[in-house]
Design a protein that fits this description.
349 residues, alpha+beta, 2 domains, 14-stranded mixed β-sheet, elongated
């Protein structure tokens, strides 16, 4: 076996797909898309270096492996790296050679950043490779489905402001509210929460536009938002309505499932209705990051109870999400929530 290395060329993706076949993991499927022609960056394109390993047989090189390292506009303190080797060429030093080359290329990244990060699933070949070459976990992430009615609904007292009658219908209406995804107030708390839970891999300073584009824009599938507010207080006594709403304690942004482009008219509507009944809604749930730990845990638990009262919801649960873990992990232990896929580890050198 004679292995030679070169830069990625157009058409290598198709050649490698023939050799690699289906991806081993969902992460492999995702990161294969990062394999592309090397770039010096600029004009919205990140700096990238991509290398292909060829097995040369009778003077003809057959691509069998590839590796890529590239800068990220979000979480810029590390470079993303990905390596894949054909199954029948593993344990032959090809992956190690590619990693050495990528580390050498990283020394010339325009940002000056040289640390690498990657994503692996525990117990896989990628996990073993990362551990062997000194990439250690810095975060664990899980997709969790919370079943309907897993948590008891919170009880919110209604305030008799201005003589309004207290009833079951309006109880809590001062604290649980729908909010437009374009709301500046929502954008602010979502951005600060995301930054707060990523101290292990800083996203840098996020602008209002970036937060909107990442989490709240129509293109993300953002479908609606609910917020849980602090009880409004009046400066003129309990019988007088306050001048403004309480601040946001927790938020939940839901994302619409994509429609089926192959569905016939009528079938699509029926299919969407069935999906709404059976498929968990993807939700980003968080809290005002300045809340005390106990207050944050209570706010997140109450919000989760509300959104998962009648329908299942799916959440991304990082170990850094302390308040959400406090609500979800007991449900996992009690069988009222379940993992929706394999765990993901972010590893770094």
């Amino acid at each position: 076996m004679a292995i030679e290395y070169r830069e990625w060329r157009d058409g290598d993706d198709l050649a490698l797909l023939e050799i690699w076949g289906d991806p081993d993991t969902a992460l492999a499927r995702q990161f294969r898309g990062a394999l592309a022609v090397s770039s010096n960056g600029g004009a919205g394109s990140p700096w990238r270096r991509c290398i292909v390993a060829e097995d040369v047989i009778d003077g003809v090189g057959i691509p069998v492996a590839a590796g890529v390292v590239y800068e990220a506009s979000l979480h810029p303190e590390r470079l993303w790296a990905y390596i894949e080797v054909a199954r029948d060429h593993r344990r032959a030093g090809i992956g190690a050679s590619l990693l050495t080359m990528l580390r050498r290329e990283a020394e010339n990244a325009p940002s000056g950043v040289t640390k690498l990060r990657a994503k692996v699933e525990p117990g896989t070949a990628g996990d073993a490779f990362a551990e062997h070459f000194g990439l250690s976990p810095i975060q664990r992430s899980r997709l969790v489905v919370v079943e309907p009615g897993a948590l008891k609904l919170p009880v919110f007292p209604d305030r008799d402001f201005g003589g309004r009658p207290v009833s079951n219908e309006n109880a809590g209406s001062d604290v649980v509210m729908d909010l437009a995804t374009g709301s500046v107030e929502l954008t602010d708390v979502v951005g600060r929460y995301y930054t707060a839970i990523h101290g292990w891999d800083s996203p840098g300073v996020l602008s209002v536009g970036q937060v909107q584009k990442l989490f709240l824009d129509e293109l993300t599938g953002a479908h609606g938002a609910i917020v849980l507010r602090a009880q409004p207080e009046s400066a003129f006594g309990s019988g007088v309505a306050p001048g403004k709403k309480g601040r946001i304690r927790a938020f939940a942004v839901s994302y619409a499932a994509p429609s089926d482009p192959d569905a016939a008219p009528g079938q699509e509507a029926a299919g969407q209705e069935a999906a709404r009944q059976e498929t968990p809604t993807d939700v980003f749930l968080g809290h005002e990051p300045s809340l005390a730990a106990d207050d944050a845990a209570e706010a997140v638990r109450d919000m989760l109870a509300l959104i998962a009262y009648q329908h299942p919801v799916m959440l991304e649960l990082d170990d850094s999400m302390t308040a959400l873990r406090a609500a979800v992990e007991p449900l996992l232990a009690g069988g009222k929530a379940r993992l929706a896929g394999a765990e993901t580890l972010v590893v770094s050198d």
